[in-house]
Design goal:
About 50% of the residues lie in helices and about 0% in strands. It is mainly alpha-helical. The chain is rod-shaped.
Length: about 40
């Protein structure tokens, strides 16, 4: 194996993770509103 193999892959992982978190924060939050069933007796 090449020198610094694990360190390089760790750095790539951290970069992908940071990009994912950055994109995630820009997405609108989806609120889950409980829906009533059509038949109230259920």
């Amino acid at each position: 194996m090449a020198d610094n193999y694990l360190e390089r892959h760790r750095e790539e992982y951290e970069q992908r993770k940071a990009d994912w978190i950055r994109r995630k924060r820009h997405l609108p939050k989806v609120s889950k509103v409980p829906q009533k069933p059509d038949d109230e007796s259920l």
